[in-house]
Amino acid sequence: MYDGRWVALAFSLAALVGGAWWCMWRLSQAHHLRDTPTSKIRSAAQGFVELCGVLHEQGMPQQAPLTRQACLWWRYRIEEYRRAGKNSRWQVVESATSDAWLLLDDGSGQCLIDPLGAEVRPATRQVWEGSLRHPLGEAPSGFRALLSFGKRYRYTEERLHAGQPLYAIGWLQTQGGGRQANNEQRRQAELIRQWKADYPDLLRRFDRNRDGQLDAQEWQRVQLAARLEAQEEQQRAVQAPLQQVLSKPAEGLPYILSCAGEDELLRKFYWQALGGALLCLAGAAASHWLWQRLW
User: Fold this and answer.
1) Closest by CA position to 58, among listed 162, 164, 176, 175
2) Mapped to the 3 state alphabet, what secondary structure does 192-227 carry?
3) Does the keyword Transmembrane apply (predicted)?
4) I need a labelling partner for 212 at 20 to 30 A (CA). Which of 66, 100, 167, 187 fits?
């Protein structure tokens, strides 16, 4: 026989575990933020660092999808209001995040930031509602207008703009100047493997006698061409200018990009950790009460 108390017990146990995990995760992040000193980009050591600076433009600016505003980075979400009997909720129907890299300047130098995998907290956030699936789309007509009559959508768009302050904590590496150069022999072998994957093209390039196979002399030409290309790549890597790059660190370390400063982030994380702890305690109390009633 179905007993709803088992379902309630499962939910209370999930609240216990989820609350404990959330509390420990936020406390761990707060610990890293508090104990990592702010570095200057020009003199920052390689590895896990904390940076503070101002966002600058680089190349062509991005265009936010919902508002068409010029920006450096964007994230948006479109939700549809849906009813099912007495229940109603907002259902996400579309979302996307920019993968454009950012440029941070702290006065001592500049650093490129790869936002992939980061917890991004922008200062600019807009939320509004409308009757179209996309706020800048064409209004439906005819039969489509009848189908969309009475629909409600909620749009959320977040953006980073040039000139905004940015707090960043993540993994810093210096690239260029030969630091990322490959071993020449290893790169030569990689090139040959890549060329062999497209054997018809390899024959077209190096089969001089057109007999459909590569003899010993032709293989020597393949190896020579691969070695020369590997040497050219090595030379380009050596000549490339040095560039600081911030990216996602190893598992367990926070990767945060925020327009709010460290103090504000710490306050939020401590409050969120407290919320997780309270959820854990409530789940533990509910689980204990339900377990007693079941047995």
Assistant:
1) 162
2) HHHHHHCHHHHHHHHCCCCCCCCCHHHHHHHHHHHH
3) yes
4) 187
Domain regions of the chain by residue span: 8-30+49-176+241-287, 184-239
Confidence of residue 1 (pLDDT cuts 50, 70, 90): very low
Query: Bridge-partner residues for 70, per DSSP?
Result: 63
Tokens of 242: 């040095």
Mean pLDDT of 227-239: 78
Length of the chain: 295
Q: What is the pLDDT of residues 147-171, one digit of tens each?
A: 555 689 999 999 999 999 999 999 9
pTM confidence score = 0.67
